[in-house]
Amino acid sequence: MLQLQVIREDQGDLVKAFKKRNLDAAPLLENVKKLDEERRSLQTRLDAVLAESNSLSKSIGELFKKGEVEKANAMKARTSELKEESKSLNESLGQAASDLEAALYLIPNVPHESVPAGTSDTDNEEIFREGDIPVLGEHALPHWELAKKYDLIDFEWGVKITGSGFPVYKGKCARLQRALIAYFLDKNTEAGYTELQVPHLVNEASGFGTGQLPDKEGQMYELASDPLFLIPTAEVPVTNLMRDTILDNSDFPVRYTAYTPCFRREAGSYGAHVRGLNRLHQFDKVEIVRVEHPDKSYEALDGMVEHVKTILRELQLPFRILRLCGGDLGFTSALTYDFEVFSTAQDRWLEISSVSNFETYQANRLKLRFRDEDKKTRLAHTLNGSALALPRVLAGIMENYQTEEGIRVPEVLIPYTGFDMIN
RNA sequence: GGAGGAAUGGCAGAGUGGUCGAAUGCGGCAGUCUUGAAAACUGUUGAGGGUCACACCUCCGGGGGUUCGAAUCCCUCUUCCUCCGCCA
User: Coil, helix or strand for A140?
Assistant: First the structure.
């Protein structure tokens, strides 16, 4: 959530910035300002009542000590008046505070100045492209056909034991997936990220911390028997590790990587675009998460982009990088780069990574701060990215590496798979 | 799952109704000394709200209660520890 201070001190720049998101923020911001003033005025009044009550209590104590019981008892009358008053003020204050919070939750992150205006994914700005798109010929198959041909993924089995969108990977494909996970983790570790294994269930507080709650609970699976959620991404548990934390300036950079399955309830549409591995309820992903000094976060973002590039380069997959436009930018993100791999057999780009800087938006909810040079506590910046999401990388490899003899295994993965051809 | 015990500042650990935002030690920071460092000594050192700055207010695991007044008493929840049971 946005910092109140930013909204209080705003000179109209915010409204302008939110236009890129096609959002008329003026009424939202005005509402927040109004509620903030209400809250503060209630707080001031409550503080005054409590101050009087505190000092009376002290006097009463002293009077009792001196044995002036009558005087003390006389003062008690005033105290109980104050108590009533503080009780009702406190209730109003609680209401005002939660109204204010609710109003703040409605405001998305401020887009970075480099974010292009636009309404949908067609307005995203391509900033980089690399790799040769293989020529496959007419016999080329999309990955769901390849999965059948070589008996690699069983979607029906998944339906049988769970439901649609929960595929079962078999044989060499399962092995290939395991190889990719190990390879990604190794690359991330090499790049300075510390590997973590984290729980795949999180509590409510964690959902709030990274912004899945209160609005997007429909996207997460919730347990019926306990107030826990299956994680939609490793971002949630990993970033929340640092909730309610004050880092030291020397703790930067904080860099973690984690492999987890990801669970998404989102129904999605049906048709070619969600066939096969394109859209699933459960998939695997290796995530990278950073916490940075505000002065360094964009440098860090660039570093993450470069890092993902080197992985795709090694896998020899044709890819491009998009800078998301305001209309496509996630609610909590200030700047996001999407990586897409070209699938020749599907003749379309597949999103395989999303790298974002959240600036202080998540940190504000998380109360993730650091002590700066002057020893003041300030909010840190959080960033994360996929390095990488498995299913579409797998699809890209299957489709782009297919030959008459079978599916070749990318060079860098052979040490992990132990075989060089799936057939 | 059963029986006990515990939860206090970065850490350790006092504090059982007012003089407690909280002793003491360690750690951190600043200074004295030193060519420099260490040691020693001195000072300083929680977070949030509020204010031009003070004042003032809140916070001793979470929530509720008793009381003029709660870290301290009561209820409740959560978590941790010990013992027993079960189990990968």
Answer: coil
What ipTM does the predicted assembly reach?
0.83
pLDDT at A80: 82
Q: Which residues contact A286 (CB under 8 A, 6 or more apart)?
A: A181, A184, A185, A188, A234, A257, A258, A259, A386, A387, A388, A390
Separation of alpha carbons A233 and A284, rounded Å: 9
CA–C1' gap, A59 and B44, in angstroms: 33
pLDDT tens per residue, range A24-69: 999 999 999 999 999 999 999 999 999 999 988 888 888 887 777 7
In this predicted structure, what is the pLDDT of residue A268? Answer: 60
Distance CA A86, CA A156 (A): 63
Of all nucleotides, the one whose C1′ comes closest to residue A72's CA is: B68
For chain A, give the number of residues.
423
How buried is residue A63: exposed, middle or buried, by Cβ count under 10 Å (0-12/13-18/19+)?
middle
pTM: 0.90
Return the residue matching tokens 């860099």: A255
Closest nucleotide C1' to the C-alpha of A58: B18
